[in-house]
Amino acid sequence: MSSQTLLSTGDKWFSYSGEMQGDSGAPASISMVLIPNTGLRDSYVEILPFFGQEVSSGVDEALGIQILIDSVSMFTSQSRQQQQERETIANVVKIFVPRQSKLEILSINTNNNNSQIRGVSVIGYYL
Q1: Nearest residue to 14 via CA among 103, 117, 107
Q2: What's the 3-state SS for the chain?
Q3: First vs last Cα of the chain: how many Å apart?
């Protein structure tokens, strides 16, 4: 799990999970990025999730992501079509995050794809 890192200019920050994967004992969701406090300024945030090759290609077996701000779900995506697009096209989720917010990005797992590689990269621009 990754936390926030400020860029040297102080006007942007980033976070990344690296490649992650679960196993047969993995919970329904895995925290990939957790930033307990985004800082003293509001942020415009771009989130780029990525997924490796599927283990199972069943209709209900697509991995997904959920974005939480202060423990409130702001975005959830878990669909086969979007996952296939993400493998070839960078689908960036763009959101505004209020100052001093807790930002968490979860991977939503499925029973047959727990061991599928997934991750996320995040960049925030202070406003």
Answers
A1: 103
A2: CECCEECCCCCEEEEECCCECCCCCCCCEEEEEEECCCCCCCEEEEEEEEECCCCCCCCCCCCEEEEEECCEEEEEECCHHHHHHHHHCCCCEEEEECCCCCEEEEEECCHHHCCCCEEEEEEEEEC
A3: 26
Report the candidate in 124, 120, 105, 100 with the shortest Cα–Cα distance to residue 45.
124
Note the pLDDT tens digit of each residue in 59-108: 667 788 999 999 999 998 876 555 455 454 457 899 999 999 999 999 88
Read off the tokens for 72.
């409130």
Q: Which residue has the tokens 């976070």?
A: 15
Q: Is 10 left (phi over 0), alpha (psi -120 to 50) or beta?
A: left
**What is the C-alpha to C-alpha distance for residues 110 and 127, in angstroms, rounded to an integer?**
37
Name the CA radius of gyration of the chain, rounded. Answer: 15
Residue 72 C-beta-side C-alpha neighbours within 13 Å:
6
Q: Which structure tokens are listed for 8?
A: 């040297």
| C-alpha count within 13 angstroms, C-beta hemisphere, residue 44 | 4
